[in-house]
Design brief:
With about 200 residues, the protein is an all-alpha fold. It is about 70% helix and about 0% strand. It has one domain.
């Protein structure tokens, strides 16, 4: 695995970390189960918590850093496997450590972006797929009994695609030196946020 060694501005990192820690926004989008219905709720769900947002954006950014074919393969793999996880959640199939898995997704994907890590493509795809399973399961468990699971699932899959698109768009600044540094800083912040999400899930 090749890892870039370009320096990251520590003051920028510290400033962004402070902003996140002082924010009173919810760290998790799936605290309350049984409160989601229909397409609109499914679409809104991934946007309502930083744990989902940061991990999904990181997928898009990392794909840009890796280049072709990862730039499209990672953002396709995540929602495809996520839909499987969503189905498992909808039918009540348990997935141990879901909250930990979601926090770990932000932590490790953030580290990949921060380091501009370049593992073999199959490793990147496998990692993204596993994390997609956990995010999908969390979405699926939100659907109350006897509601429209298909519309809800379509909603959160489409929202995930939008978040990947945001990550890809942001990742395009990687072509410039300053942009590449900014993405590494962002990856560091995402990784630290992931560590916070894991801590929140364990207390």
């Amino acid at each position: 695995m090749k890892i870039s060694s370009r320096p990251i501005n520590r003051r920028v990192v510290a400033t962004v970390i402070a902003i996140i820690l002082l924010s009173n926004l919810s760290a998790q989008a799936h605290i309350q189960q049984g409160g989601a219905t229909g397409f609109v709720t499914g679409f809104v769900h991934p946007w309502s918590g930083w744990d989902h947002i940061l991990a999904m954006v990181a997928v898009g950014v990392w794909g840009v850093q890796l280049g072709q074919p990862a730039i499209w393969l990672l953002p396709v793999t995540f929602p495809v496997i996520m839909s499987i996880g969503g189905f498992l959640g909808l039918i009540g199939c348990p997935l141990p450590g879901t909250e930990i898995g979601i926090g770990l997704s932000a932590l490790l994907l953030g580290l990949m972006v921060a380091a501009e890590a370049r593992p073999p493509l199959w490793v990147a795809v496998l990692m993204v797929g596993i994390f997609g399973l956990y995010h999908g399961h969390a979405h699926g468990t939100e659907l109350p009994p006897n509601e429209d699971g298909l519309s809800y699932s379509i909603g959160f899959v489409m929202a995930t695609g939008c978040l990947h698109g945001v990550g890809i768009t942001l990742g395009l600044i990687h072509r410039w030196k300053a942009g590449a540094v900014a993405l590494r800083v962002a990856g560091t912040v995402i990784a630290l946020a992931g560590a916070f999400f894991i801590w929140r899930a364990m207390v």
